[in-house]
Write a structure and sequence with these properties.
Elements lengths: L35 H25 L6 E5 L5 H10 L4 E6 L2 H14 L4 E5 L11 E7 L8 H9 L2 E13 L8 E2 L4 H15 L6 H11 L6 E5 L2 E3 L5 H18 L5 H4 L4 H11 L3 E3 L2 E8 L4
Parallel strand pairs: 1-2, 1-4, 2-3, 4-5
Antiparallel strand pairs: 5-10, 6-9, 7-10, 8-9
Helix pairs in contact: 1-2, 1-7, 4-6, 5-7, 7-9
């Protein structure tokens, strides 16, 4: 599900960073493949989720003229959204450990004519990023870090006093067993497989709900919180392709963990089958909770 690639198994930037983690910590391995197909999937996912993220960023106080740090930029979609908000007078610096994803992001920025976005290969917790920022943002990135609170503390340290810190994460509650009505749908079945795979891979499954405590542990003030899910039904709902895309990306791990056989999953036809099954059941389906948290850094 991740919209970022700021996680483990990547190049360390300093002695403090080990396998993408802080000293003494090893981040969970990124559960999805790093490939051109994955970067394209992330862009489609961004189009599906961007409405929720834009509402969160604007509520948090992003505005024209700001200098924004985008944590875990991946193929650049959150950076492009922030760039649209801050406008030509603002600046967005995207950082990610995945150089191949950033190459894609740079090409996309050029094709979009965005001159207020730059990308740096590195780790937002420890790399040299050049000066203070008015805001730090991230979507679906903290779930891939072993110590989200410490990561937030370090990232917030890059933001000027009174600046904005805003993150958005899924809450993948393994106890919740239904994301559709009626419940017996292929959407539900696929969702359960996805969540089980993320859990087996060691992700921060409740990161959405953990944001509150992580902000406080990072030394930040009590954050404002928002919770959204994307709900849809009928033949035109884009969520079918989104969920099928996540499942396709996780298929090798599903097979490795013996959660599902790839051939039985049928990833190539999964979008159509999820959609057709939902239509046949007159089902309404929804994503897990997308939880956002935002606050401002302490004034000195």
């Amino acid at each position: 599900m991740s919209g970022s690639a700021n996680d483990s198994g990547q190049n360390a930037l300093s002695a403090e960073v080990r396998a993408g983690g802080l000293a003494g910590e090893v981040d969970p391995a990124y559960a999805l493949a790093r490939s051109r197909d994955e970067y394209e999937r992330l862009s489609r996912q961004a189009a599906f989720l961007n409405g929720t993220t834009e509402r969160l960023f604007r509520a948090a106080g992003l505005e024209p003229g700001m200098r924004v740090l985008d944590v875990g930029s991946g193929a650049g979609d959150v950076a492009f959204l922030a760039a649209e908000i801050v406008g030509a007078a603002g600046e967005v610096v995207g950082v990610d450990v995945d150089g191949a994803a950033l190459a894609v992001a740079r090409g996309r920025a050029q094709s979009l004519g965005l001159h207020n976005v730059t990308f740096i290969e590195g780790d937002a917790r420890s790399g040299e990023l050049g000066g203070d920022f008015d805001a730090a943002v991230g979507r679906l990135v903290l779930m891939y870090w072993a110590d989200p609170a410490e990561a937030l503390r370090r990232i917030a340290g890059r933001v000027r006093p009174g600046g904005v810190v805003v993150f958005q994460e899924f809450d993948l509650d393994p106890v919740v067993r239904s994301w559709s009505f009626p419940e017996e749908t292929l959407w539900n079945e696929t969702g359960r497989l996805v969540i089980e795979t993320f859990a087996r891979a060691g992700m921060q499954m409740r990161m959405g709900r953990q944001l509150y405590g992580a902000f406080l542990a990072a030394g930040l003030s009590t954050p404002e919180m928002r919770d959204e899910a994307v709900v849809g039904a009928g033949p035109g709902f884009e969520g079918y392709a989104w969920l099928a895309g996540v499942a396709r990306g996780l298929a090798p791990l599903m097979a490795k963990f013996a959660i599902a056989e790839v051939d039985r999953l049928g990833p190539e036809t999964l979008t159509d089958r999820i959609r057709d099954d939902a239509i046949a059941a007159s089902a309404v389906v929804w994503t897990p909770s997308l939880v956002g948290a935002y606050t401002r850094t302490p004034e000195r």
